[in-house]
Amino acid sequence: MRRVFLIFLLSLPLKPQVAQESWTQGIETLIVSGNLSQARQRLEQETAARGETSAVLYFDARILFEEHRYAQALQVVQRSLAMVPTNPELYKLAALSAIRMDRLDIAEPALKTAAQLAPNDYLVHFHLGALYYTESLFLSAKPELEKAAQLNPSYMPALLFLGLTLEEVGDEKTTIATYRKAIEMAAAQRTAREMPYVYLGRFYYRLNRFEEGLPLLDKAVEINPSSGEGLLELGKTLHALKRDSEAVRVLERAAVADALDPEPHYLLFRILESQSREQAAQDELHRFQALSKQKPASDTARRRLQSTQ
Question: Does residue 108 contact residue 144 with C-beta atoms inside 8 Å?
Fold first, then answer.
């Protein structure tokens, strides 16, 4: 079963790629800073002065989106599109709102239109490629993500989604090179991002190249000691290397870091059972079973796509 773990900030902000009118810049700043109530007040003042223009509706939809009112945001941006059907930012916002509503049937055509109107907007290509990834259309996702990474080589989500896509199409060499590039980019930006290390370490685990993956996963946990994904993959790798005493300690930390994930408990059950620690093993099995019942059976790839908006 294909596992998707990118849990990026639930929040890559919307980044308009076109020049704005002077009156919109203050509202944009307020939205980006999270001061939505003041942004709403400013927008109401501009609406009174200008009327319900396409730009006014766009910022209304932006605020609604940031308030997690995605259905309303989509309705408002569709009204704006009726006025100006050639603005790629409107299609982009419509698509992102639709993705949050799990309406990929709306998101895909909106992103395709945005890509036609703004072929050099890296975010459009990224979101279209990520959407294709969630639909398991990996050969369609690949060129879109490659284009996004080409247009903005420092955009980490594009590199990581591209790496995941290359894994699916079976391009081992380029997958490793892509994750290595993401690691180099994180180092150059001096950002404490563990996920490039987690992804490459996990990929080496899948290739049974455990010794190569271990230092990467150690680094990931050093960067973020509370990373449930990093700890889980490190524990799995230590177990594969038959370093079970260390694996147990790391997996126990993984279970604490992500209290809703059943997988660390299952791995602990298997290790403890192999060590004839029957009571402890049964305790972990019961935790695994309880969490497995609680965990919603949802499409992890779609959750991942939503988490990058």
Answer: no
303-306-307 Cα angle (round to 5): 85
- The yes-or-no verdict on residue 22 having pLDDT over 90 is no
Q: What gap in Å lies between CA 118 and CA 113, rounded to an integer? A: 9
Residue 192 to residue 224: CA distance in whole angstroms: 8
Torsion of CA 201, 303, 137, 160, to 10 degrees: -30
8 Å CB contact between 207 and 172: yes
- pTM for the complete prediction? 0.83
* Domain span including residue 75: 27-118
What average pLDDT does the structure give for the chain? Answer: 89
Residue 39 lies inside a defined structural domain of this protein: yes
DSSP string, 185-241: HHHHTT----HHHHHHHHHHHHTT-HHHHHHHHHHHHHH-TT-HHHHHHHHHHHHHT
